[in-house]
Write a structure and sequence with these properties.
This protein is mainly alpha-helical and 187 residues long. 63% of the residues lie in helices and 2% in strands. The chain folds into two domains: 138 residues; 47 residues, no CATH class. The mean pLDDT is 84.
């Protein structure tokens, strides 16, 4: 997998892509992703910090570099041998806000790239590692997915945040049926 990811990273014209912090940061992002791939199990949370340059959550902006890095980020987050997975899943959760943002601050290719990665992103909710499942909860798309997770989840460290996510999703839902199903779980 590492060789394939490195080749894909090298094919991206990083010098032409702008990140949330501007064009020069894009090359640093490429190097940070390469380092994560090359370090594998030895990668740490600190190794993920440069990736946050790609998406500035305060602006809700998904720049072109974010679109380019998404497939690699998803692959690394789903790699059972990557030790920095928790940080990578958290970064994906931050990216979801951009996937749901208005089209103006988001790169034109972002939504399509997110949709292409969607099955792999949603698979993180069923990951064998409870901490990964917990951090992936914000990636769940809708109350039905959260309810499905609720019925499958056995780990108490995941069930409590899942319950909170269900309540939050129900509070933001105008439809009565999903809210009623969440209330049934709460009851």
């Amino acid at each position: 997998m590492a060789a394939r990811l490195l080749a894909a990273l090298d094919d991206v014209p990083w010098q032409r892509l702008e990140s949330a912090l501007g064009r020069p940061a894009s090359e640093r992002l490429r190097q940070a992703l390469r380092d994560l791939v090359l370090r594998g199990r030895a990668a740490t949370e600190e190794d993920c910090y440069p990736l946050h340059d790609c998406l500035s959550r305060s602006t809700g902006r998904a720049a072109p570099a974010a679109t380019a890095m998404l497939p690699c980020l998803v692959a690394l987050a789903g790699d059972p041998y990557a030790d920095a997975r928790i940080s990578l899943v958290q970064l994906l959760a931050n990216c979801k806000a951009a996937a749901e943002a208005d089209p103006d601050p988001v790169d034109a290719g972002w939504h399509e790239a997110w949709l292409l990665q969607r099955p792999r992103i949603q698979a993180l909710l069923d990951d064998p590692v409870p901490a990964v499942r917990r951090e992936a909860l914000p990636l769940a798309e809708g109350i039905d997915v959260l309810l499905q997770r609720w019925h499958a989840e056995q780990d108490p460290a995941v069930r409590l945040p899942l319950l909170i996510a269900l309540g939050t999703a129900a509070a933001g839902c105008a439809q009565g049926d999903p809210v009623g199903r969440v209330r049934a779980v709460l009851g």
